[in-house]
C-alpha cells in the first residue's frame, strides 16, 4: 500500500501526550492515553494489512480482527 498510514500521526500524538504526563500523578489520564495508544496501534496494523478499520474502541475486538491474542483479560 503506497498511501501513508493515517494512524501513524495519531500514534505519534498519543505517545507525545503520554511523554508529557508520565511523571505527573494524573493516573486516569495516563490510563486513558495508554488505551488510546494501544487502540491506534492495532488500527494502524489493520490499515497496514489492507483491512477495514472498524469504528470501535475495544482492544479485544480489534485484536480479533487481526487474528491475534492480547495478554489481557476481558473484565
Structure write-up:
This protein has 75 residues and is mainly α. It contains three helices and no strands. It is flat and about 40 Å long.
Keywords:
flat; 75 residues; single chain; mainly alpha; 3 helices
Summarize the SSE layout with pairings:
Layout: H1 7-21, H2 27-48, H3 59-65
Helix pairs in contact: 1-2, 2-3
Strand segment tally: 0
Structural class designation: mainly alpha
Tell me the helix content.
55-70%
Strand content: under 5%
Radius of gyration, rounded? 13 Å
For the sheet with most strands, the description reads:
none
Morphology: flat
Count of runs of 4 or more consecutive helical residues:
3
What is the residue-averaged pLDDT? 91
Stretches where pLDDT is under 50 for at least 5 consecutive residues are none
Distance between the termini: 36 Å
Strand-and-helix sequence, N→C?
A: HHH
Summarize the structure.
The protein is mainly α.
